């Protein structure tokens, strides 16, 4: 025995050491693989972003090169370019022609804008206030034409960008550097429009040294940075060039917002630099998953598997040492059968315990100390009958739900003939049906106590409505017993109070209240429709009820 124990102990120690070593190696490998995968994904993304930016910048250069000897006052300046620019990437928001106009050219420019069909040809500042040519002493940059033309963009031609700090700085750089440049991030089209960048390419006629105008293309920032990939390993943020520690991020809908990075916040996993419009833009990449935690979890799983295998080897070694091979096989077959039988019995025990727990709660609350045995017997039979009825209805529908009006049946609900039921014929989920069936029985079983006092049957109404749309739909149920007062209606039992005030509302994820009016007793229940109907439960049971298709 001592020698056998020593051998088993040695095997166990060796297994523990090997399991720990394997877990350590797996941890390092998983961590390295995640970092490599993240780095490669970031490099690919940065390369794609750079390619997109280069293509958009090339479009501006090509478009500006098509202007051989442009006339800045000609209407529809972009007309020759429309087919050409759409042959390239068409994800720009607006393409525009901005002309540099002298003060004596404003009148002719206004006429050209009117001839092009734009509704507001008045030459005006960026704040839409008219510009007086007599007060101008230098040339100004005016938007003369744009593409596409829509209700939102037709009102833009005629604006001067000299007062816009972002666009005027972009045009000044393009005029001085005589190459395409990009603006700082700015709202496009309007002050609350999508955030994007504008690339401007100067148009310089042959033999001239100064540009006569600019071709501009506006792009949404989210699409340029490829930030809407839900399956990506990382989230992308653009460093704001105007603010230290500022970043621009886009959500899943492509809406860009600004945020400030603090020293306490998470640092980006990596940064990459891309060139666009004659300047460098820095992208910050934030990993969506914690590689270290994932590697630790994998290592724990590997170690647990190793320890389990070690324990199994030690147990098997001790078992084989006391038995021959034939007896070992027979015993293992028996053990396997017993384990399967135990699993089935455990599952059966679990389900039976749940049913017994509900019945025990009903019996305990119904047959409480001091209760009338005849009343308790009727309540107990009725409550169990209500459970049996809803289970039968669910079985008939293959647990696909029960029509709400079907719960108001005479065989399960007392005084069902005196209940006026109104409401849409919705199908509630199995869980909701069980709670509502007990709820309706509990309400109906207390509705006939005041007959000897009031001298007539109380009139009962049960109605429900559904308000809202989509995920905001709300189920409203109202039970009202007329010709009933607090003096004539029997107080609810302990079980009834728990069911009315807590169990039913919690099962449906809603709220309930009960009160007396001058002429009636009212119970109201409000719950979200997604818990009352529960389409996920219906879809799941529908799949389980479908016949299994044979494998071909």
Structural class: alpha+beta
The separation of the N and C termini measures 56 Å
The best one-word shape is: flat
> Largest sheet, if any?
6 strands, antiparallel
- Number of helical stretches of at least 4 residues: 13
List unreliable stretches of 5+ residues: 450-455, 547-552
The amount of beta strand, in percent, is: 15-25%
Q: Helical content, roughly? A: 40-55%
Mean model confidence by pLDDT = 79
Radius of gyration, in angstroms, nearest whole number: 39 Å
E-strand count: 18
Written description of the protein model:
There is one protein chain. By secondary structure, the chain is of the alpha+beta class. Helix content is 44%, strand content 20%. It has helices spanning 2-65, 82-85, 106-115, 165-177, 221-224, 291-321, 325-366, 373-396, 430-445, 451-454, 494-508, 529-533, 535-545; strands at 94-101, 140-147, 181-182, 186-187, 195-203, 213-220, 234-239, 246-250, 256-260, 270-276, 279-287, 402-403, 419-422, 427-428, 460-467, 474-482, 511-516, 520-528. Strand 4 and strand 5 form a beta hairpin. Helix 1 runs antiparallel to helix 6, helix 7 (325-366) crosses helix 8 and helix 8 (373-396) packs antiparallel against helix 9. The radius of gyration is 39 Å and the shape is flat. The two termini are 56 Å apart. Mean pLDDT is 79; it is low at 450-455 and 547-552. The chain crosses the membrane at residues 299-322. GO terms for molecular function: ATP binding; protein histidine kinase activity.
């Amino acid at each position: 025995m001592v020698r056998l124990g020593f051998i088993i102990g040695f095997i166990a120690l060796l297994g523990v050491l090997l399991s720990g070593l394997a877990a350590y190696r797996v941890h390092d490998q998983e961590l390295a693989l995640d970092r490599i995968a993240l780095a490669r994904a970031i490099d690919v993304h940065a390369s794609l972003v750079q390619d997109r930016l280069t293509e958009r910048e090339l479009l501006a250069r090509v478009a500006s090169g098509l202007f051989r000897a442009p006339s800045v006052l000609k209407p529809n300046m972009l007309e020759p370019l429309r087919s050409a620019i759409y042959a390239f990437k068409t994800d720009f928001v607006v393409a525009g022609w901005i002309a540099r106009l002298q003060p004596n050219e404003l009148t002719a420019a206004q006429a050209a804008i009117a001839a092009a069909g734009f509704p507001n040809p008045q030459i005006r500042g960026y704040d839409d206030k008219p510009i007086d040519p007599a007060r101008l002493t230098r040339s100004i940059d005016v938007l003369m034409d744009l593409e596409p033309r829509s209700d939102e963009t037709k009102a833009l031609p005629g604006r001067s960008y000299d007062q816009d700090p972002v666009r005027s700085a972009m045009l000044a750089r393009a005029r001085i550097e005589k190459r395409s440049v990009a603006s700082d991030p700015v709202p496009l089209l309007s002050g609350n429009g999508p955030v994007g960048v504008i690339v401007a390419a100067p148009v310089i006629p042959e033999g001239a040294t100064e540009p006569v105008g600019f071709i501009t293309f506006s792009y949404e920032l989210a699409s340029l940075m490829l930030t809407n990939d839900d399956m990506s390993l990382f989230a992308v943020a653009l460093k704001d060039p105007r603010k230290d520690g500022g970043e621009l991020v886009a959500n899943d809908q492509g809406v860009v917002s600004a945020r400030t990075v603090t020293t306490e916040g998470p640092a980006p996993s990596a940064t990459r630099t891309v060139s666009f419009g004659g300047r460098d833009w820095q992208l910050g990449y934030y990993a969506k998953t914690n590689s270290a935690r994932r590697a630790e979890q994998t290592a724990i799983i590997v170690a647990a598997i190793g320890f389990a295998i070690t324990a199994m080897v030690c147990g098997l070694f001790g078992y084989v040492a006391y038995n021959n091979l034939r007896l070992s096989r027979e015993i293992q077959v028996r053990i396997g059968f017993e384990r399967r039988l135990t699993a089935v019995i455990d599952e059966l025990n679990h389900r039976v315990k749940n049913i017994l727990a509900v019945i025990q709660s009903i019996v305990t609350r119904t047959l409480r100390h001091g209760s009338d045995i005849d009343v308790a017997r009727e309540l107990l039979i009725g409550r169990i009958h209500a459970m049996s009825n809803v289970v039968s209805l669910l079985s008939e529908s293959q647990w696909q739900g029960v029509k709400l009006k079907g719960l108001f049946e005479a065989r399960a609900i007392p005084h069902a003939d005196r209940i006026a039921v109104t409401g849409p014929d919705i199908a509630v989920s199995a869980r909701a049906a069980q709670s509502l069936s007990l709820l309706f029985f509990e309400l109906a079983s207390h509705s006939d106590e005041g007959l000897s006092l009031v001298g007539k049957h109380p009139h009962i109404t049960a109605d429900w409505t559904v308000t809202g749309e989509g995920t905001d739909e709300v189920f409203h149920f109202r039970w009202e017993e007329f010709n009933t007062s607090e003096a004539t209606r029997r107080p609810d039992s302990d079980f009834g109070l728990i069911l009315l005030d807590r169990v039913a509302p919690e099962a449906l994820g809603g709220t309930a209240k009960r009160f007396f009016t001058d002429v009636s007793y009212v119970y109201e229940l409000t719950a979200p429709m997604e818990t009352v109907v529960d389409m996920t439960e219906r879809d799941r049971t529908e799949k389980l009820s479908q016949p299994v298709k044979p494998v071909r």
